[in-house]
Amino acid sequence: PALRGHRLVPPLRRLEESLCPRHLRPLERYCRAERLCLCEACAAQEHRGHELVPLEQERALQEAEQPKVLSAVEDRMDELGAGIAQSRRTVALIKSAAVAERERVSQLFAEAAATLQGFQKEVLGFIEEGEAAMLSRSQGDLRRQEEQRSRLSRARHNLSQVPEADSVSFLQELLALRLALEEGCGPGPGPPRELGFTKSSQAVKAVREVLAAACASQWGQLRGLSGDEDGPHKLGPEADAESQDPDNSSHLDSEVPRDYFLKFAYIVDLDSDTADKFLQLFGTKGVKRVLCPISYPESPTRFTHCEQVLGEGALDRGTYYWEVEIIEGWVSVGVMAEDFSPHEPYDRGRLGRNAHSCCLQWNGRGFSVWFHGQEAPLPHAFSPTVGVCLEYADRALAFYAVRDGKVSLLRRLKATRARRSGPLASPGDPFQSVLDSHFPGLFRSRLKPAFFLESVDAHLQIGPLKKSCISVLKRR
């Protein structure tokens, strides 16, 4: 009866968490401005003027939003699960590739050591053969000279022992001494002017210097080319030769299953803070150029002179793949440096018209690629679905036509490797010359997916990779 007129609520298990730590009063109000539960004293003091509602009212509103939040959580958990599975496969692939490469390198070093040992054996054998041949000649001459000296010594001794009265013996011994002396007439063989086998050290020294220079050169190339090589690259010397020619016909004519690229899938969301006022966004995936400007809030990253929009997030140190559906109009898709100013004038700010961006353009008649203000037309029919693959480790950007679960290369932009003789590119390909000179500099910055809608009513949609790539990753 004493509590009959009081307000009764269910008992709280953790009473201290439902009390204001400053005023020790029940938390009965909710501040929507700062998303905090408050007591009446806090509401009347620090949060005066804020939007305050009862806890039950806010809970009812949040419970209505709960299914949407839970759905977003499930989607994010699916993405994270797919990413975890891919990362685990990547870790296993890296480990297995490292083990296999270590074995190959050890085998090649063993073969190189065996080659050096074989060369060492041959050089030492050459020295022994030269020594034996020259010793054979020199020792033969030595024996002959020693024998001659011995004969002269005996003949001289015999002559000295002849009695003075014995004229016959004197004449005979003197004749023998003269004959022994005549046998040794002429100079004996002198020392050899050059020992042929002494050049062996020079040959080995030359091999050592060549080997040291080759090791230093290869080590420099290895360090210079090292990185996150997780892109869709080929293996072997044939692929290395093809990678130097971005327009290789085998790439242009071949088709690759789309599922292969989905393991590099990147979910692109349009950044509304970068959209030009003449672009209307449809969620985070669609954009259309309109005639009437849209009153977007002020943003330092918003384009002011070009009908362009960027994707959220900056890309670096990896391989990324996304798709774009060209619905209508002239559309350009590509990448742009994160630090490029969105306030550049129209002639320099457009996608592909500067050194800070490049793109694939559909102009209503055909495809072409743009970089640094240079255009290169492409001899390919229209494809409403375009795939973009950014290979950051390889400093390359590739555009693909996507049809019926297959992708075919439209053009792969990459600077060719420097050759020892001749220019980097043929004089007849000015676009490749521009790539060789400036394209590597594009990758000094983090890059963002970029989209330019050139014609009125141009319309594009970011491809629905989300469910597709997750299902493929789960299957794998």
TrEMBL record:
The lineage of its organism: Eukaryota, Metazoa, Chordata, Craniata, Vertebrata. Residues 136-158, 223-254 are annotated as: Disordered. Its main location: cytoplasm. It is an enzyme of class 2 (transferase). It catalyses: S-ubiquitinyl-[E2 ubiquitin-conjugating enzyme]-L-cysteine + [acceptor protein]-L-lysine = [E2 ubiquitin-conjugating enzyme]-L-cysteine + N(6)-ubiquitinyl-[acceptor protein]-L-lysine. This is RING-type E3 ubiquitin transferase. The keyword Zinc applies. It comes from Myotis lucifugus (Little brown bat). It holds the Pfam family zf-B_box. The keyword Translocase does not apply. Its EC number is 2.3.2.27. GO terms for cellular component: cytosol; nucleus. Residues 248-469 form the B30.2/SPRY domain.
